[in-house]
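Input record (one chain):
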Amino acid sequence: MNTQTRVLLGLFLTLWVKRVAPEVSVDQCSGVACDQDQVVLNNGEKMPLIGLGTAGYTDQQLLTTALSSALSAGYRMIDTADLYSNHQQIAAALEVILPTQGLTRTNLFITTKIRPTDLGYLKCKYAVKRFLEELSTP
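The corresponding structure, as predicted from the sequence alone:
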């Protein structure tokens, strides 16, 4: 699955996962690799249910440090939103971090959300295109 598809799937699945997926308790699972921590998508890809939330992170150094620590700890999903105004900072941080950890964008799911003002076919279409550009997603 290519990086752009992962971002789009994340965009549309964020609310679904939060509403439909079962809660995972500590006694159900130990470690990041637990199968209970993932949801299997229709195409067979496994998407993590637990990711790093980036609300409030706009400082480049802080965001780079947080993402680096999360990826080192095994996180493979990053959650953001247009409202957080940090898409470009996330892209810049990942450009630096991923090579140092032997990862590529295809190893990650990036979920984002649109603003209520971007609802509707055309507004959503242009917002998603902008998100992909801001996140440096081919």
